[in-house]
Design brief:
Length: 162
């Protein structure tokens, strides 16, 4: 009985990893409140599914066509006198800092764990920037799985107490 629950949760986890409007937390809460499925099995399945989806995003960025050629190009200059230009420059600076943090062995794992468990910075962006960094696929995968499992299992256990 729990096998189809796990398969359903993994499928929802994969979908929610790549489609931002599919909320995995709401799924785990809904499963726990309804009592239709075991919330811990659902949380485990969603964690695995989210990891599969985020690793797919990570690999899509890493192995996209023409990535090596675009890496050497300098970004276009922006007009810092306009609000839009300042925003674009700020976005570039934040992205570069996060890319440097993800490439650093001492900071990449904690940033990914924090993102996967707490959501700051958003895991969607971390997966995309992680693919452009020097972080290993196995390191990224295990960090996401551990963080997501902690997040969803704790959420499921909290709901099951009610």
């Amino acid at each position: 009985m729990w096998v189809w629950q796990l398969a359903l949760a993994v499928g929802f986890g994969i979908g929610s990893a790549v489609i931002p409007v599919m909320n995995a937390e709401a799924y785990v809460l809904g499963v726990g409140v309804s009592g239709a499925l075991d919330p811990v099995v659902a949380a485990t399945g969603v964690s695995v599914g989210q990891t599969i989806g985020k690793v797919a995003m990570f690999l899509a960025v890493r192995y996209r066509p023409g990535y090596a050629a675009r890496k050497t190009e300098e970004p276009k200059a922006v007009n810092l006198d306009t609000r839009w230009g300042r925003f674009v420059q700020w976005n570039r600076d934040v992205s570069k800092r996060l890319l440097d943090a993800m490439s650093d062995r001492r900071l990449g794992i904690p940033v990914t764990l924090l993102s996967a468990s707490v959501g700051i910075p958003p895991l969607y962006g971390v997966a995309l920037i992680g693919g452009a960094s020097r972080m290993g696929v196995l390191t990224f995968s295990l960090s996401v799985l551990l963080g997501r499992a902690a997040r969803f299992v704790l959420l499921a256990l909290g709901v099951s107490l009610v």
